[in-house]
Design a protein that fits this description.
2 copies of one chain form a homodimer.
Chain A lengths: L1 H12 L2 E2 H10 L9 H13 L3 E6 L5 E5 L1 H11 L10 H6 L7 H28 L5 H32 L3
Antiparallel strand pairs in A: 1-3, 2-3
Chain B binds a DNA duplex (28 and 28 nucleotides) through helix 2 and helix 3.
DNA sequence: ACGTACATGTAAGGAGTTACATGATTTG
DNA sequence: CAAATCATGTAACTCCTTACATGTACGT
């Protein structure tokens, strides 16, 4: 259900082909809702059939560019006013509950690797943030999401560092 | 795959019936990996068949208590040494990208509601944290996960408050 | 006795992942 | 002309959600 609305929202912001949507998911939307091409293309076909998106151009290699219709934008607005599904799955967070099953050194190695991942991702989001000043409403909303990601990563980095100190006392 | 290991890890920490695992997911593990009874019972049957858990007791109403076997514990350790799947899906985070499609007042209402949710959950996790001092290795690992949740929520609360100020300038 | 919580199960459908499959255009 | 990237599609499988289904024990 979320994927459908992610596509409608992205195509309301700017025109995209399935392929450029795929790239867009890899670079930004995917941090909140990952999606591969095998999900995107069939869903675009369904949205087109239901009149929530329309084809606006054709390009080389059979590329088709889409945009959200007025009905599609209304559907996103309707969705935004419903209760979000707050269930979140994080394999990485789950593992923490069971770190006591590993020798302390291995648990520490896990935490150190997590910290490195978070640091690398944080640096990348900072780079994206500093690329340009948000100006349009759309850019300002994307910036909200980006800053949310940065703050979450900062919390995770601090957590991993604290957890490493904790685990050091387990020996 | 994660559900399987969540069950093995939980049953390595203490014996559980399917029903008490369900409650355990609702209260703690589910914040990292939600699961309902319709997933838990069939998965327990599979783990039992594969010899990764064993039945240790029977109770009233057909209740069966399980524990992880030595082979099951080894399987958790093996899993903990594989690369975590870092994909995370958050419907709530996804919506932020598209808040520009709402009138600023409605966007602000969304953010305010999110803030309330985070505050309530934070208070609940603090209550759980203050219930008892962690002593065993298992309790210390669960505490790591709990503190991770608290830090993440604090970041989300600060983010929501900053975002509310931002959205106030959209008018 | 009645309601609530305990306790387990299955089935249908939807969502997501991985693998299979193909071909055109651009860049070096 | 070779490799990388652009571009789209389908199929099988696994996982997750929702709904249907049933029965027992405990507390008041």
């Amino acid at each position: 259900m979320s994927l459908r609305h992610a596509l409608l929202g992205a195509l309301a912001a700017e025109h995209h082909t399935g392929y450029s949507l795929l790239k867009h998911f890899e670079q930004s939307l995917g941090y909140a809702w990952p999606a591969g091409h095998s999900q995107i293309y069939p869903e675009l076909a369904r949205l087109l059939e239901r009149g929530l998106i329309e084809q606006t151009a054709s390009g080389p290699r059979g590329a088709r560019t889409y945009a959200t219709t007025a009905a599609g934008v209304e559907e996103v607005r309707r969705w935004l006013r419903t209760e979000p599904d707050r269930r979140v799955r994080s394999d990485a967070a789950l593992r923490v509950f069971f770190l006591w099953l590993l020798p302390p050194d291995d648990a520490a190695a896990y935490l150190a690797a997590e910290r490195e991942r978070y640091l690398a991702l944080h640096a990348e989001l900072e780079r994206i943030r500093d690329e340009e000043e948000p100006e349009t409403p759309k850019q300002r909303a994307y910036r909200l999401a980006l800053v949310g990601g940065l703050l979450a990563l900062e919390a995770q980095i601090r957590w991993a560092e604290w957890a490493l100190e904790e685990v050091a006392t387990w020996r």
